[in-house]
Design a protein that fits this description.
Blueprint: H1 7-34, H2 39-47, E1 51-54, E2 57-60, H3 62-68, H4 79-91, H5 104-121, H6 129-133, E3 139-142, H7 149-157, E4 162-167, H8 170-182, E5 189-193, E6 205-211, H9 217-230, E7 231-241, H10 248-260, H11 268-278, E8 281-286, E9 295-300
Parallel strand pairs: 3-4, 3-6, 4-5, 6-7
Antiparallel strand pairs: 1-2, 7-9, 8-9
Helix pairs in contact: 1-2, 5-7
Length: 308
């Protein structure tokens, strides 16, 4: 006799499968953090096809090991941060209240490796940017700096670079400026408490980074013309935006995360069209030679005339 199941039973089974996926992610995150697999986590990952058991204990499967060996390693997956954000979203707590700040030496070590990788693999995709960065008076602007280690790492890598960052979180600003001090670059870099909509620089930066995922729509609208004026002729703006290139569920999750973080949920094509309207040139989507969870839109200030 066939047993009839109710819609509630089907929903319960589906949620149970999601629970198993969440705990599997937690086991991967624990391995990335601890560097070894205890028996409980190993059994979870083994059942999921992500670990194998040998005489010496549990080890990542060849496929998982290959993923973690990619540039950026397990840190690029940001599993622990994503799991905290999921828990915060489910309980109505801001993601910023759940973020844990690692010691400065840990953050700087990771940022230094990241900047070296970006300089080798991403910067060459932007004509003449490498030469600009290596110059004696190069300038960069980060419109949402966080705790400052990436800004500091760029200034360490390029001894002539001047850098300015913005962040809305006062705690982040204090930590970021302390990070710049610890890295020995506080004489060339600073982080400002606030948003970039009040930027009043002119012909100052060779590169500006703006994550639309963390930038409110009204701030983007006010800031993009100011950034155009703040760039040096031929300077580059990069906007990190939600890619929306997955299935319906993936795209819906991406949009929810952006809105929860106070960002702008516009598509890459919508952002690109806005940049062209404002007066940016060479607007295009960059495809880096490595996995990137976001779309990257590049745009350039014209060489001449000076933007209005």
């Amino acid at each position: 006799m066939t047993t009839q199941t109710s819609p509630a039973d089907d929903a319960a089974r589906h949620i149970h499968e999601l629970f198993k996926s969440a705990w599997t992610l937690a086991a991967v995150s624990a391995y990335i953090t601890d560097g070894h697999l205890d028996d409980p986590q190993g059994r979870v990952l083994g059942a999921a096809g992500l670990a194998v058991h040998e005489e010496s204990g549990w080890h990542p499967s060849p496929e998982l090991a290959a993923l973690l060996d990619r540039p950026g390693g397990g840190a690029s997956l940001q599993l622990a941060a994503n799991l905290r954000q999921m828990a915060a979203a489910g309980s109505g707590v801001s993601r910023w209240e759940t973020e844990e700040i690692a010691p400065v030496e840990v953050r700087m070590a990771a940022a230094s490796q990241g900047v070296e990788f970006l300089v080798a693999n991403l910067v060459p995709l932007f004509p003449d940017l490498a030469e600009r960065f290596a110059g004696p008076e190069s300038g960069i602007l980060d419109t949402r700096t966080g705790t400052g280690e990436v800004l500091a790492a760029y200034c360490v890598h390029f001894p002539g670079m001047r850098a300015i960052g913005y962040d809305l979180d006062e705690r982040n600003v204090k930590i970021a400026n302390a990070t710049l001090q610890a890295a020995g670059v506080a004489d060339r870099a600073t982080v400002i408490h606030g948003d970039v909509s009040q930027l009043d620089e002119l012909d100052s930066f060779d590169s500006v980074r703006m994550p639309s995922t963390l930038t409110a729509p009204e701030v983007m609208c006010a800031a993009l013309p100011r950034i155009l004026r703040a760039l040096r002729p031929g300077g580059w703006l990069t906007v990190q935006a939600p890619a929306y290139d997955g299935d319906e569920l993936s795209n819906a999750i991406a949009r929810w995360r952006v809105i929860r973080d106070g960002g702008t949920p516009d598509t890459p094509s919508e952002i690109a069209e806005e940049l062209r309207t404002i007066g940016y040139t060479d607007v295009h989507q960059v495809t880096p030679p490595f996995p990137l969870p976001l779309a990257m839109i590049a745009a350039r200030r014209p060489q001449d005339p000076h933007p209005v």
